[in-house]
Amino acid sequence: MPVKKGRKSVKTDDNTIGTTDTDLTTNDTNSDDVPKIKPVINALFKQKKVREAKSTDFENTDDDEKLKNIKGKKRETFADRKKDESKGKKSKKRKETTVQATNIETVQEVEEEVPIEPLDVTAEDVEAIFNTVSTGEAPIDISIDYENFGQVTMSSLQWSNLAAVPVALKLTNTSHSLVITGKWPVAEMPYISGGPLLEDYVFSQIHYHWGGVVRQYDIEQKKDTLWIMAGSEHTIENEQFPLEMHAVFHRRSCGSHEAAKRAHNGIAIVVYLCADITEDDNPYLTPVTKTIYRVMQPYTSYALDIAPLNTLLPTFYDDYIIYKGYLKFKCNHDIIWIITRNTFFVSLFQLCKFQEVMDAQGRPITNPFHETNPLDDRPILHVNPSSKYDAFIHFRDTDLKAVEEALNDVQKNKKPSADKKKKKQTLTAGRKGSKIK
Predict the structure, then answer these.
(1) What percentage of the chain carries pLDDT values higher than 90?
(2) Residue 64 is inside which H or E element, if any?
(3) Domain Alpha-carbonic anhydrase spans what residues (predicted)?
């Protein structure tokens, strides 16, 4: 998978001060009712320093200093803390064996204070934190090493009416993507709330961004080589992914999606990153991929089988990333981005089905790679984290032989080549789509 380096972000000043609820651009206030955002920001910076202590360079330091830096080497996770609390235990101190550093011959035990825990905040606190800096463009690269990356705990994200049966569901080829829209009785409209959201956000639509599949015959090795081309909007540690799904919600008080696009915090987008190519179809994508042949041409629509939204959208409640950013040419006001750490998979068959969708120029739609946008001091918050920071998201090991066999099954459903004696068969994909030659 091709990788492009993102741009470096700039560290936020430690003296950044929060804002009031009435004037989010003013830093000077003495009101007791204003959230005390400065300590919040400072606590988030302290979290960063604790993480940096893990990778302290022991070279060029004396033994006493090395032992001092070893303390805090490991951290207690949010999940561990909750487990301890459920047993009625207080997690204060624990002993652990230190890592043997350069020029330290004996392994010593040190008492380690429990590292800083995720900071408990409210949705109002989060809003004030995000308003300490100017807005920026989305999408972005997400890195756990980013200077303004912090852990917080708050109320869980809530999903409502996802089991409500819609009056209608429609799949549309917009020439840029595939979009799902629906109609529900007013009282049964699906919506999300809680977490960082100050009010209810009503469902607007689901759309997808995808890459491609390349299969090329290697004449020297006399076998096919399979390449999965990425198409996600966001990147994790500068890695792009095969597919990204967006569930778009608009603020209920705005009245409509179009009105919400013109309002501050009018839109919230829930992001699912596909990190795995599998043999088995993703059931959340099946209603789409089995209907794609009906909307292959641009600006066409087709009714999907009536089914509740929870058959198209997996839910989660904790362990997600939030940041704010606008979309140039689409929504110039801040969008609340909610990115789950739960992996989302797609089968090779389904990915190839997405590649059959055509744009207005008669070309297969794929998402071209573009540079992610600089954060410029914007904070990224990890809400209710449930695991260590080894990585934000993981690929699952894939049996390429099995995947290639699955691709052969895909080819059987396509029209065979007129030249059966042709030795080289290529499934050209990448940024411009796919077709059999």
Answers:
(1) 32
(2) helix 63-70
(3) 117-384
Element (H, E) at 85: helix 78-86
**CA nearest neighbour of 242 among 284, 276, 287:** 276
For residue 102, the tally of other CB atoms under 10 A from its CB is: 11
Quote the strand ranges of 220-362, DSSP E. Answer: 223-229, 235-236, 243-251, 267-278, 301-303, 320-327, 331-340, 344-347
**Contact present, 315 and 249 (Cβ < 8 Å):** no
Given a contact cutoff of 8 angstroms between Cβ atoms, the answer to whether 252 and 202 are in contact is yes
CA distance 354 to 364: 9
Mean predicted confidence (pLDDT) in 250-264: 92
Residue 227 pLDDT class (50, 70, 90 cuts):
confident
Q: Where are the beta strands (DSSP E) in 188-319?
A: 191-194, 201-210, 212-218, 223-229, 235-236, 243-251, 267-278, 301-303
The DSSP 8-state label assigned to residue 293 in this structure reads G
175-216 pLDDT tens trace: 999 999 999 999 999 999 999 999 999 999 999 999 877 777
Cβ–Cβ < 8 Å for 196, 322: yes
Closest CA relative to residue 381, chosen from 226, 150, 208, 172: 150
Instruction: Return the structure tokens found at 59.
Output: 């070279």
Best CA proximity match to 78, nearest among 395, 314, 389 = 389
The b/e string for 267-300 (b: 16+ C-beta within 10 A; e otherwise) is bbbbbbbbbbbbeebbebbebbbebbeebeebee
Q: Assess contact for 260 and 271: CB atoms under 8 A.
A: no
Compute φ and ψ for 215, nearest 5 degrees: -130, 120
Report the DSSP pairing between strands 301-303 and 168-173: antiparallel
Measure CA 386 to chain center: 15
Ranking 108-112, 220-224, 278-282, 291-295 by mean pLDDT, the lowest is: 108-112
Selection from 194, 155, 184, 178 nearest residue 308 by Cα: 184
pTM comes to 0.68
**C-alpha span between 53 and 47 (Å, rounded):** 10
| Model pLDDT for residues 335-372, shown as the tens digit of each residue | 899 999 887 889 889 998 998 999 999 988 887 666 77
